[in-house]
Recover the amino acids of this structure.
């Protein structure tokens, strides 16, 4: 993945809260700095449904359990007035030096800014073109260390990257990619792994804007609404990936000038590594589709490629699909 050195980066929606000083939320105490502290407590050879449920709740990308309403209501959606205070709060200044595509080529932090800019530009055009829904960007894409307060509650590094519909924010502790995805789940390393994850989480924002999250009623199982929601976010990630080199900065300068076949392979490998069956087999030694919340490795790869090859919201309608 290569960025255009002439592109200008917009850091207004990308923030870093630094190290948390407070107590932990789900998952216990706070993590340490880069490469240290709390990691997802993946059991070795554990058996039993409760162990699988705990692992999935901590590892997988969307923290559905923190934003699920009771009864027949499906996901709790934001009211008319979002709490945007987190987008305006304390910022460590981590992204202050990210000004151009040249900075993005030299720094993974600035690359994160460029990817956010590209996702925003892509969906600002694609969503209104392919639907009757007006686009609005996410409120904040925020990195943190240890724990973070969100509209969906307090979350530690253990939960991995996630989207919170209540405040329309994307949150991630970047140590996840090495400490959990690579070392514990056997996922790939590479420059395009994080962009795939960010595109998946941005896909959840698009679902929120479109009202799709309100369709989630069933939380587990291979045909559940939760699985359909996750596979659709993978499909949306594929849509952006196919069009990423056509996205521009505010002045019309291309943001991304090259995506290689290796980049695409990294995204596919990352999708495979976070399939429910892959995680269950790796952490418990057995696979139970009744407990799936995100879809199998094969499904996640396939729906990413549906988005990549078809490039349309209609093709990504997993809720209408009879065969996932």
């Amino acid at each position: 993945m290569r960025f255009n050195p002439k592109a200008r980066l917009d850091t207004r929606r990308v923030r870093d809260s630094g190290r948390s000083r407070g107590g932990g939320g789900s998952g216990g105490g706070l993590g340490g700095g880069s490469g240290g502290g709390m990691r997802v407590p993946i059991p070795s050879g554990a058996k039993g449904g409760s162990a699988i449920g705990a692992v999935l709740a901590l590892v997988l990308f969307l923290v559905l359990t923190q934003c699920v309403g009771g009864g027949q209501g499906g996901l709790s959606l934001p009211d008319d007035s979002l709490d945007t205070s987190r987008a305006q709060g304390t910022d460590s200044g981590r992204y202050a030096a990210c000004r151009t595509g040249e900075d993005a080529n030299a720094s993974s932090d600035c690359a994160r800014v460029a990817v956010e800019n590209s996702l925003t530009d892509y969906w600002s055009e694609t969503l209104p073109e392919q639907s009757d829904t007006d686009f609005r960007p996410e409120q904040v894409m925020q990195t943190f260390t240890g724990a973070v307060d969100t509209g969906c509650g307090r979350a530690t590094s253990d939960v991995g990257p996630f989207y919170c519909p209540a405040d329309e924010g994307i949150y991630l502790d970047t140590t996840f990619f090495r400490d959990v995805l690579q070392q514990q789940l056997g996922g790939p390393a590479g420059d395009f792994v994080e962009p795939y994850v960010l595109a998946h989480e941005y896909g959840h924002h698009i679902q929120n804007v479109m009202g799709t999250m309100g369709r989630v009623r069933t939380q587990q199982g291979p045909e559940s609404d939760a699985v359909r929601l996750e596979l659709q976010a993978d499909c949306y990630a594929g849509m952006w990936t196919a069009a990423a080199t056509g996205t521009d900065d505010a002045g019309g300068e291309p943001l991304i000038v090259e995506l290689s076949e290796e980049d695409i392979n990294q995204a596919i490998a990352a999708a495979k590594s976070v399939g429910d069956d892959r995680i269950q087999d790796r952490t418990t030694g057995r696979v139970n589709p009744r407990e799936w919340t995100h879809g199998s490795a094969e499904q996640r790869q396939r729906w990413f490629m549906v988005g990549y090859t078809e490039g349309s919201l209609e093709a990504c309608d997993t809720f209408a699909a009879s065969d996932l």
In short: Residues 21-80 have pLDDT under 50 and may be disordered. The first helix runs from residue 49 to 59. Residues 2-310 form one domain.
